[in-house]
Specification:
With 376 residues, the protein is an alpha+beta fold. The protein has helices spanning 9-35, 62-110, 126-175, 181-210, 220-237, 255-271, 332-342; strands at residues 49-52, 55-58, 216-219, 240-246, 250-253, 278-287, 290-297, 346-351, 357-364. The strands form 3 sheets. It has a 5-stranded mixed sheet, with helices on one face. A two-stranded antiparallel sheet has the order 1-2. Strands 3-5 form a two-stranded antiparallel sheet. The longest helix is centred in the middle third of the chain and has 50 residues, at 126-175. The chain is elongated and about 125 Å long.
Length: 376
């Protein structure tokens, strides 16, 4: 925004300090005039006589004192003005020095450098609090932008992979017309299906982060049963036992997003499980003002350092994998985390001592209204 140039804050404070001193000095001189000089007589000096031990003393009148006092008062006021300007300029500079550092950091951030920090030292005051808040804001901005850059890089790679595979298959078919067309169509279908799933997952992730959905009552126990019923064929194929327990657990949110959240959790628990004989337990229960959903599965042991990174986009298993044969698109727990945050909930991932993972989700509950005593 273009603004007309004006006085700097330092100059304004300097003028304020000097003006204050000048006014204080003027008031002090006014007090001297009111309470001292005004009581002196204006008569001829000869009429002001006092006798001390036979010696006659003739005192000055008001005019004499004014002639001697006025120049000295003017010099004192001029000194106060100069002293106020110089001292005010120095004091204002010291007072505004933290703001200069904050402005430099803000200017650097505006130019794209988010790594600069103020790190202001000293005791806690308003400027120190402002600098700490600004540093915290830069930390969050830098982390968010770095996360978005990683997400964009991984998303572009994931979207490019099925397209590259499709082009390779088409090139092979064009060079070898005798190749089995049924096999080619089947592989192209699988590659395109994966690309569509990835695109839908990205759109769902974007939708949940924008909070663009209508909230309505949802029973987590019914959602858990629906998700388990949907994924039962996959569990049977992998010889995994699904178990749904708990009681009616009401929350408020988007039924479609919450169903996708639970489905992703259960699917992740089935896929990342033992080769055979594993279990997946889904439990729902109300706790005070929260609605709790737990999904626990057996599997390989997970390190405590790895678990917090599983909610990052395109994180699969123990490392970032981009193998085409992997059944997922690497956004399962990232979508779960985004949906939980959109519903003002919390997500807790805990590795099981015997292997596998325990996922606990807490969403805002609906207060239970007690039924009348006459109802049974």
């Amino acid at each position: 925004m273009n603004r007309r140039p004006g006085l700097s804050a330092r100059m304004k404070l300097t003028i304020s300090y000097a003006g204050f001193l000048l006014i204080a000095g003027t008031l002090l001189l006014a007090v001297v005039w009111v309470f001292v000089l005004r009581w002196l007589p204006t008569d001829d000096p000869g009429s002001i006589r006092r006798t001390f031990g036979g010696v006659i003393f003739i005192g000055p009148n008001r005019a004499d004192l004014l002639r001697g006092f006025a120049p000295a008062a003017a010099i004192a006021l001029a000194f106060l003005l100069v002293f106020g300007l110089l001292g005010g300029w120095i004091l204002a500079g010291r007072m505004l020095a933290p703001l200069t550092r904050i402005a430099d950091a803000a200017r650097a951030a505006g130019n794209g450098s988010l790594s600069h920090r103020i790190h202001m030292k000293g005791r806690q005051d308003e400027f120190r609090e402002l600098s700490d808040v600004f540093d915290s804001m830069l930390d969050q901005l830098e982390s968010h932008i770095a996360e978005q850059q990683r997400f964009a890089a991984n998303a572009s790679h994931e979207l490019r992979t099925p397209l590259a595979i499709s082009r390779t298959l088409l090139d092979v078919a064009r060079k070898d017309p005798t190749r089995d067309q049924g096999e080619l169509i089947e592989r192209l279908y699988a590659v395109n299906t994966r690309a569509i799933d990835l695109t839908e997952a990205l759109l769902l992730l974007s939708r949940s982060e924008r909070h663009s959905f209508t909230r309505e009552p949802v029973d987590l126990s019914l959602v858990a049963e629906e998700a388990a019923e949907t994924l039962l064929p996959l569990a049977e194929k992998r010889r995994i036992t699904l178990d749904v327990t708990g009681e009616t657990t009401q929350t408020v949110g988007s039924p479609a997003l919450i169903l996708r959240m639970v489905t992703n959790l259960v699917q992740n628990a089935i896929v990342h499980n033992l080769a055979a004989g594993g279990t997946v337990t889904i439990h729902t229960e109300p706790q005070h003002d929260a609605s709790v959903l737990r999904v626990e599965n057996t599997g390989l042991p997970l390190s405590s350092e790895l678990v917090p990174t599983l909610t990052e986009p395109f994180r699969r298993g123990t490392e970032r994998v981009r193998a085409d044969e992997h059944p997922g698109v690497g956004l399962g727990l990232a979508i779960v985390h985004s949906i939980v945050r959109a519903h003002d909930g919390t997500l807790d991932l805990t590795p099981r001592p015997t292997g596998g993972l325990l996922v606990t989700i807490r969403l805002p509950g609906i207060p239970q209204t007690s039924s009348p005593s006459g109802d049974h």
